[in-house]
Fold this protein.
Amino acid sequence: MCYYLKLKYFTLHGPLPGMPPQFLLGNLAQSGLLFDKASLPEAHIAFKQRYGDIYQFWISSTRLIVVNNLNDIQHIFTHRNIYDQGDIYVQKFSIVIPHGLISSKGAKYKRHAGLTLPLFRRGKIVSNFDLIVDCVDKLLIRWRTKSPQHVHLDIVQQSQNLLLAIFGLIGFDYDMETLDNDNDTNKNELTKALQYFLSNFNIMLFSPKILSTIYFKLSSQYRQSQKTIEQYFDRMIKQELDNGKELIAQRKRTSLIASLVGSLQQDEEMETNKSEEDRKGLSRNELLDEMRLFLLAGFETTSTALAWFIHLMSKHPQVQQNIKTELSNNNSQGLLSLDRLDSLVYLDCVIKEVFRFCPPINGTVRTLTVDDRLPETGAQLFRGDQILIPFHSLARDTRYWSIDPELFYPERFLGADKDHHPYALIPFGGGHRQCIGQDLARFELKVIAARLMQYVTFGDGGNQVNSGGHLSKLTIIPKHVGVTIDFDK
Ligand code: HEM
């Protein structure tokens, strides 16, 4: 039996190179992912060095084909009709968010995307400028109480608190109160529940579906965290329903929560009996799952990018100085406005460089719906194959960058790397399933970074506590961040 399982589910398939997978583990132990000996980006860089541009990589019994050639990647993203959402996403996310956009395909995906996608275009986002600045100011008030010598070791958590507060207001018109607590240790129960979910993400990602389903069913802590999250959602839904039908209908075009709540199906049973193509609106479970997905996607990714920004600034005082010079060049007595924000070209380069140097998400996956041959490597792929595109490896590949990609150097985007290949830098993925929140994330990050740089300078808290490194969770989080925060004014 074991021999049969090993042969069928844990043996290299086809001619593509790779490390023969181990029983039950695939390549998890060999790559160092098990027990956090290596992070996902490190594992993929090592595999690429050993096996070249295209190789097999096994996460337990799931065989992924990793593609590093940019022309092949362009082919994959532009042939949306045959490279659909990765089955691994659908399988893994459907354990905890079965009805969310990310775990849907085809007509169901279109129904959900139609309700949410238009709300994340730049035009709808810029109106949140003051709200973001206000939230950053609240965080600055808390930081002011600490001495400039104090080494902040909780930057990841502080970034999460900030982004939760911001996304709560932008997405759900709801004050999460994550910045109100005067204490560094977080007491907000929603944050705790979300953090519990995130800390268990690797169980979901790396273990077979059956095991993680059992784990999540049996874990009382997980059930409790879900209960807490739903209690918050109930309050948010009630708050929106209290606005009344007319106001909700008006707000639908600009507010995520109004769009979701306003789309609740009147007769769920009737809608369930229709074919997916004819179905309209969202069931209550679908609404709750979209809230779960957007809350997680909306705060975790961007807060990781912010934590990397702060860590990298603490290591690069000259870059901080350049941002400050650009901010003061505008000669507007410390006022930050939308126009002024748009004029900050150097800051754009810094943010781009943060996304290149440390992409918060390691990669994305597509599943083939028919057989296909990749144009550059000539690799023959088959229906059902899952293709992984590793963002970090592309962003560090010397073939795709004129200036040494191992350097953190924002100026590259003003000079030799200005016209880099578009697919060498894809922190938000590509093609029809690329990130729908990317305009919001970029905007949030720019406003936050500009506001922070108006007031503070981050200092290196010492190599012991500020050595960086990767922690692979839902996102790739900086492992060791310890910075001082000095107020300039
Ligand atoms: C720095 C911040 C962010 C990063 C790096 C990021 C990255 C990504 C990536 C790589 C994907 C997969 C794309 C693909 O498969 O091609 C994705 C999907 C997604 N992101 Fe983001 N994201 C960020 C912020 C956000 C925000 C703020 C939101 C929501 C408000 C959001 C919502 C989503 C959703 C709903 C999907 C699934 C889309 C689908 O399945 O079609 N993301 N994101």
